[in-house]
From TrEMBL:
InterPro entries listed in its UniProt record: KH_dom-like_a/b, OsmC/Ohr_fam, OsmC/Ohrsf
Top-level taxon of origin: Bacteria
Annotated protein name in UniProt: OsmC family protein
A Pfam family recorded for this sequence: OsmC
Originating species: Pricia mediterranea
Amino acid sequence: MSEKNHVTTKWLGNMVFESTNPSGLDLKIDAGPDDGGEGKGFRPKALMLSGLAGCSALDIAGLIKKMKLDVDDFHIETIADLTDVHPKFYDKVVVEYHFHGSDLDEKKLQRAVDLSVEKYCGVMEMFRRFAEMEIKTVFHDK
């Protein structure tokens, strides 16, 4: 039997919704003022980018630990282009991995990125089905 995720999204009024997560945490979703909302919640398309970055970040954090790599700081910048015509979707996504530290093992960190991008991150694989993906790795020596 395949694994399933179940999320419940409940209308709270106007353009606000509350969505559950298998972790037991909830989040609010709201449209921006231009679309009749108040901007008091996450935007659905941006959440997709957070899901993409989060999936890969968790892979890499685990690999940093497993490989015993010395990294002071690590963040991911995710920049996506939306199509012009409805339904608007991301057709190109750039994912930039930024590593900071004074003793970075660039070869092993690049291997961690490659493993996440090519093998482990299921969200990355989903994005590949509808968007051109560009992956960049940036090393910042302190």
